[in-house]
Amino acid sequence: MTYHQDRFAFNDGSTTVREKLDEFLARIEERSALNAFITVDADGARARSAESDERFTTGLMRPLEGMTIAVKDNISVRGMRMTCASKILENFRPVYDATIIERLNNAGAVIIGKTNMDEFAMGSSNETSAFGPVLHPIDPTLVPGGSSGGSAVSVAAGLCHAALGSDTGGSIRQPAAFCGVVGFKPTYGTVSRYGLTAFASSLDQIGTFTRTVEDTAAVFDAICGHDPMDSTSAPRTYPSSIAALTDPLPDPLRIGVLPESDLEGCDHDVILAYRATIERLRALGATINEVTLPHRDVWIPTYFILATAEASSNLARFDGVRYGYRAEATSEDVMVAARTQGFGTEVKRRIMLGTYVLSSGYYDAYYTKAQQARRLISEAYASIFASHHAMLMPTTPTTAFERGAKNNDPVAMWLSDLFTVSANIAGIPAISIPSGSDAKGLPIGMQLQAGMFQDALLLRIAAAVEASFAG
Ligand code: GLN
Is 80 strand, coil or helix? Predict the structure, then answer.
């Protein structure tokens, strides 16, 4: 059930927020093998659901009244343990709410708990968590995608109405595609990151998982907007994206698509789904143009240089002294011991790579080059969106892969982000929507991207594609 469907039931009294919440809590228990949650706050959620029920009775409902939301465990909720799925933060309790949590609370949402993830959001398979892997809801031998795998699974398995994730290079869209739910990464700067544990600050963006584009739009409307606590937050106001869902589509609707040669290496079923989605867009009246996105060969290297460089700097704060895991060691060794024992392999790999690309001898060869490449990629997108409303591409080259398949080959793992990193590099909004399944019955996701701050338009187009599947 989507939130909007349940809201009708809350409104007409046929069910209560508390009953719905209890259903979710029971299902979390039933499906605990999925390992989707690190922390469940049943008592806190029950208290909030009572307030929501009261408001449905008195008619004072807020925009997300009674929406049960799970939060990725790198977003701060006051008093609730936040681990980032790392041993180094295993007992850390933040003392303040992230701005988006405050906004969700003010909008009437019910926070049910914190979801499992790749350690510090580094990964594409949810296998790097210190709390164990998250399993795919359809087949436990497969990965759910990462790094927001717990959030994707919690929506796909019906453990909540919606979930928050963070997307630095695809961590919302890729698991959304693998699990068959809607995953949205808004424009950089639209949603405050105050209270999000930074991984790569120039790329990180908080976004959502839901079952439908309509639910996505409702959450986005509640959480977007300027926040003086986040210096990268854009000082703008946004049109209601829920209202925009009923606007007519632009006429003519111009969509850019990749030439087939750019789909090399994709599963055959993903290519078929891509072609089918193009036909759906054509049936909606869209003009389809083949667009060559320049510099595709440098997307992944650019992303991994920038992301690791920023991560090595952001993660310096986890020193085992100020907070988090404290190692048994003499004073000089305490930091080395805490970091050695507290961080997992992938995080260490990123920190080492990041310090290397920032080191004085290699800075220009790697970091400066990556920044130049970033500018070219952003400019290429800007020129495409000057004449197109959106760009369509697959979200991932394959459907969900086997657990363990890529653990010994970091480059193969990193390549699963082939189609997602560019949106973060350019800061543009992007959404993955469920678009059929492969021969094994595994979900396939298609991705739409739009120009900076065209989030409402992107959701409008995504809703039209989604409706074409239902019809
Ligand atoms: N999978 C990518 C990485 O490992 C993206 C992670 C993310 O978006 N947080 O860096």
Answer: coil
pLDDT, tens only, 388-407: 999 999 999 999 999 999 98
C-alpha span between 228 and 234 (Å, rounded): 9
For residue 209, give the DSSP letter.
Answer: E
As a whole number of Å, the CA-based R_g of the chain is 21
Q: What is the pLDDT of residues 6-36, one digit of tens each?
A: 999 999 999 999 999 999 999 999 999 999 9
Three-class DSSP category at 200: coil
Amino acid at 56: F
**CATH of 3-244 among 3.40.140.10, 1.20.210.10, 2.60.40.3950, 3.90.1300.10:** 3.90.1300.10
Residue 92 CB neighbour total at 10 angstroms: 17
Ligand 1 within 6 A of CB of 74: no
Q: Is the CB of 307 under 6 A from ligand 1?
A: yes
Which residue out of 74, 124, 148 has the highest number of ligand 1 atoms within 8 Å of its CB and is therefore the one to mutate?
Answer: 124
Q: Which atom of ligand 1 is nearest to the CA of 199?
A: 9
- With b for 16 or more beta-carbon neighbours within 10 A and e for fewer, the 166-196 pattern comes to bbbbbbbbbbbbbbbbbbbbbbbbbbbbbbb
Sole residue written with tokens 């990965």: 143
Cα gap 191→206, rounded to integer Å: 7
pTM: 0.97
Q: How confident is the model at residue 323 (pLDDT cuts 50, 70, 90)?
A: confident
Residue 123, ligand 1, Cβ within 6 A: yes
Which atom of ligand 1 is nearest the CA belonging to 168? Answer: 8
Q: Which of 148, 171, 241, 422 is catalytic?
A: 171
Contact 230, 193 (CB under 8 A): yes
Marked catalytic residue, from 147, 312, 416, 435: 147
Task: Answer yes or no: 440 catalytic.
Answer: no
State how beta strands 287-290 and 162-167 pair.
unpaired
The helix/strand/coil state of 163 is: strand
- End-to-end CA distance of the chain: give it in Å, rounded: 18
DSSP secondary structure code for residue 125 in this structure: S
